[in-house]
Amino acid sequence: MSNSINKLIILSLVTLLILPSMMVTGCSPSDIAKVRIGYLLGDLHHLPLFVAIEKGFFQEEGIDVEVVGPFDAGPAEMDAMAAGHLDIGYVGASPAIMSAARGVPLAIISGVNQEGSALVADKGITSIGDLRSKKIATPAPGSIQHIMTGMVLSENNLSFKDVELFPGTIKAPDMPLNLQSGRISAYFIWEPFVAMSVVSGSGHVLVNSKDIWPGHPCCVVVTRDEFLKNNDREVKAVVSAHQKAVKFIVDNPAESKRIGQKYTGLGADVIDSAFSRVKYVTGINNNDLVKFVNGIIELGENGSIKPIITRKEVPEADDFINGIIDLKYLSR
Amino acid sequence: MADLPQLFPTPVAVVVAFKDLLIAEGPAGLPWAGELIGNMLVSLWRVIVGFCLAAVTGVLLGVIAGWWPRARDLVEPVVEIIRPIPPLAWVPLAMLWFGLGFRPAVFLIWLGAFFPILSNTVLGMESTPKNLIEVSKTLGANSRQILFKVGIPSALPSIMAGLRIGLGIGWMCLVAAELTGSNTGLGYLIMYYYSTMEAAKMVAGMLTIGLVGVLAFIGLKKLEDRLVFWRELE
After folding, report:
1. Could you tell me how many CB contacts below 8 A there are between chain A and chain B?
2. Looking at the domain assignment, is residue A22 inside a domain?
3. What residue ranges do the domains of chain B occupy?
């Protein structure tokens, strides 16, 4: 009797130990029927993905995609990729860079957009100086919007220490409501969450991101190194479909906006407003990304923020960026 | 994949992370305390306030509902509907009602701790031995004396068990509460290092939560042994 109970205990302990490791290794990334793509929830920057799906560009290129997204923030998406559950990601350049700096083997295979973010404030705030000791929300620490918040504050002789910052703990889709209800005074975010407050009248664009850093990098298409190595045809097809979609957006803004409405569930006025700030491009300016990486490192070194990426991880930003950008699939 | 420090930090990395977090500057208002201890103090304060509110409201309502059947009939249906809702489901509403930081966290801790305290108090009051009540009546005790000298003392072990469970659940809710809409506390610390993909620091934060939870549990157990001293005599 007690013998069988012992056996039962041992069995359950063994199961307890084995089960998690099975979950980790269970999905080996080889022999994939479909290309698994992720994106961020309601992010209008990722419109090329929606257009490519809607217009059947992926099928035209002979591949089948499975959307495993939407994620509510970039770090979560990059974690899924690091764990091998995602092949292609539409994501901010920053989480991709951060993930690479931590040693995750990945490659940036195309740009998605430039600019397209803004610092939105309630109507009572008319200058950056008014933000002193106010509550400001940004995406995850180290995101482009977080870094640009730091840039715009320091241009006005303020620092992160002069405001009350919520980096990453108020999700992008929750920001407009928090502004409207007066919980926060400002937020720095991507579209369409800028336009939502602008159109509803609860906020206004205090600074457009392109006025802080013209042509600043934003979202990119990223893939795992392993996927890139073993699935040349699929990666090429994804990039071609993406390139077609970006061209389609530039050539057919009206129809693209309708697709944007469908995928974000927002009204035409919001999408119209958002469109005026986003630049859809496939190219990537390496120097901008180098500048961005150096910026994060320096902010950490001079104590403006907690060190996020260090010189130990990225001794030479040039080599690091050139090492992760692989634009050979883009046709010119 | 297993060699990715982003996913699986080594024990050594976690120890180093502990050290780093102890030295790094603490949250606003507590920079001297260090990042780990400072955020822990913030979390602890939230739990103390939320838990005390839950203890007062839960025990009070529990005594009333457990002693007078008519009160129980009023309280029970409402409680039974709200109790199964996980505190996590309240997070968005807590943010809308109470804003950011301290107040929504206290609300969620109160919510998590309140129900176990309430149900255990009700249970304890209801199971007051009938013969004790009868004896007290025979000896001429008035109803107030019966409540305070017989009912509540006999429910005390059950109330203390409820407080212990409530503290545990409150502590768990705190972390959930701090993951969103917060910029201080251990939950925020974990979320921050999740965002910057520093798993070792996340694990250090998680272990701290566990450690503080155990210490609080032991403290409450000690208090219980002192309050319910007669249990040892039986």
Report:
1. 82
2. no
3. 35-228
> Cβ(B184)–Cβ(B42) under 8 Å?
yes
Residue A169: phi, psi to the nearest 5? -100, 0
Backbone torsions φ then ψ of B82, nearest 5 degrees: -80, -35
Task: Tell me the chain B residues in contact with residue A140 when contact means C-beta distances shorter than 8 Å.
Answer: 195-196
Same structural domain, A108 and A232: yes
Chain A residue nearest residue B184, CA to CA: A166
CB A300 within 8 A of CB A307: yes
Last residue of a domain, one of A153, A181, A212: A212
Per-residue pLDDT 10s for chain A (332 aa) are 566 777 767 666 666 656 555 554 444 444 446 899 999 988 999 999 999 999 999 999 999 999 987 898 899 999 999 988 999 999 999 999 999 998 899 999 999 999 999 999 999 999 999 999 999 999 999 999 999 999 999 999 999 989 999 998 898 988 999 999 899 999 999 999 999 999 999 999 999 999 999 999 999 999 999 999 999 999 999 999 999 999 999 999 999 999 999 998 999 999 999 999 999 999 999 999 999 999 999 988 888 888 899 998 999 999 999 999 999 998 87
Interface probe with A: pick from B10, B100, B197, B198, most Cβ of A within 10 Å: B197
Residues of chain B contacting A314 with CB distance shorter than 8 Å? none
Q: Which of residues 69-108 of B touch A (CB under 8 A)?
A: 92, 95-96, 99-100
Contact call for A166 and B181, based on CB within 8 A: yes
CATH number, residue A124 = 3.40.190.10
Q: Among A104, A140, A177, whose Cβ lies nearest the Cβ of B4? A: A104
Contact B6 A167 (CB under 8 A): no
Buried b (16+ CB within 10 A) or exposed e, A6-37: eeeeeeeeeeeeeeeeeeeeeeebeebeebbb
CATH of the structural domain B35-228, one choice from 2.60.40.730, 3.55.50.30, 1.20.1080.10, 1.10.3720.10: 1.10.3720.10
Same domain, A97 and A223: yes
Q: Which of A82, A177, A178 sits opposite B6 (nearest CB)?
A: A82
Do residues A207 and A175 share a domain? Answer: yes
Neighboring chain B residues of A79 at a CB cutoff of 8 Å: 6-7, 197
Q: Does B180 touch chain A (CB under 8 A)?
A: yes
Contact B196 A308 (CB under 8 A): yes
Cα-based distances in Å from A89 to A49, A74, A263: 10, 9, 17
Chain centroid to CA B72: 24
Domain count of the fold of chain A: 2
Nearest to B196 among A82, A98, A177 (CB): A98
Residue A208 bridge partners (DSSP): A118
CB pair distance less than 8 Å for B100 and A171: no
| Domain end among A212, A231, A252 | A212
Q: Which domain holds residue A256?
A: 35-115+216-300+307-324
CA–CA gap between residue B66 and residue A178 (Å, rounded): 41
Q: What is the pTM of this model?
A: 0.81
CB B168 within 8 A of CB B115: no
- The token pair at A81 is 């990729």
